[in-house]
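User: I'm curious what two different proteins look like when written out as structure tokens. Can you demonstrate?

Assistant: Sure. I'll show them one after the other, since each token string lines up with its own sequence. Here's the first protein:
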Amino acid sequence: MPHNVKIPDYVIERIMAKRGKLEVFDEFEAAKTAFLVIDMQNFYVAEVDTAISIVPNINRIAAVGREKGVPVIWVIMRCAEEEGAPSQWKLYHDYFFTSAKAQNHLSKLSPGNAGYELYPDLDVQDGDRIVTKKRFSPFIIGASDLHGILQGLGVENLVVAGTATNMCSESTARDAMMLDYKVVMVEDANAARYDDDHLAGLTSFYQSFGDVRTTDDVIAMLT
């Protein structure tokens, strides 16, 4: 089921006091915008109701984006070159999991395992791009080639959806803003396992890094 939460009033008050308006960006020129969908792989989505619930909204934004010439880029986690190969993020797997959970994460997020594949209900088209990353954020140096791809496309604006809201989605959106992209996180097209985590990611981002908008709002602001 989707998250049944709203941005707290005190967060809205802080945003208004800081910048005088709720939304920084009124519209995005489609020709300079990309839609990033973060980590919607079977491992993260298949047994998580909140993540499954955002699939229709991701597909809606992707469809409208394609019509307007917005590149749709599926960004996915790749922990090893192939299943059974060494971790590409040894510190994370050595220190932040039990040994069993580390092996599960490493194995299922490596090519050759079904967990690595994009969730099947996602509307992935031949003209879309798939970019692999080896850190929470694809913008960390050496994590992926996403920044170079976006620069080559002339992209200045990013719409970010996916999972988990407070981890890879938020990390991606924050780092993008600090590289001078204008960024919107989609409130009802991002998901975390728990409502508190989802809300934490959105409110943290909203106060200093960019806008939080609904799917309908994002579609309306693509000009």
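Here's a second, unrelated protein for contrast:
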Amino acid sequence: MQLEDRVAIVTGAGQGIGAAVARAYVREGARVAIVDMNAEAAERLAGEIGQAGGQAIGIGCNVADRGQVAGMAEQVVKAWGRVDILVNNAGITRPAMLDKMSAEQWDQVLAVHLTGSYNCLQAVVGGMIERNYGRIIFVTSTAGVLGTIGQINYSAAKAGILGMTKSCAKELARYNITANAIAPGAATPMTNTIRTDERFKDKYLERIPMRRWAEPEEIAPVFVFFASAAAGYVTGQVLAADGGMTIY
């Protein structure tokens, strides 16, 4: 198993890609903290994994709240002694055209994606530095690479995560800590509008060479790779699991 005895935190893991990643990590031998703002969803998935013989705990946490993040990280360390892998996956959307977007919509999205990722990173990186080991995986988006209409807040946040990934990789490489990012295509409940709205779905599909939507389960193996020994000499990289959308 590629992640045997590793301890992972996966944020935004109550559904979608995060849930698929949590399941994949457990199958590969990791103990996983399933973190989500929806505590019920996190605990339910942890219970399902436990019934199947895996090790997981569900924790309700708003990653934009620094105090909640600190408490979450302490709970994981208390349970399993350390954190080896952090997957910063939590995200929200608040779509609106640029001229209609409110300050609240802007702030909410950046608070979860950017500040939330930073909060989680700071909560665990000290222990990783002490142990001279860590795997940090950020989740960006094709929107952060290409931009998108009606979500300047989301695109800006995801583009910011690219800079965070590269800076983190440069700063932490000396401690045997890698930092990489994954840019998935539309594969989650958060992107249901794009996938189902007649105004958007055909135009979006035309931009994907594979001409189909992704499923969370086919994105999860990329997260396994970045968390595993196979990616021990890979850092500061962005891998697009998007059906070829960002080919250029």
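A detail about the second structure: Strands lie at 7-11, 31-36, 56-60, 85-88, 134-139, 177-184, 238-241.
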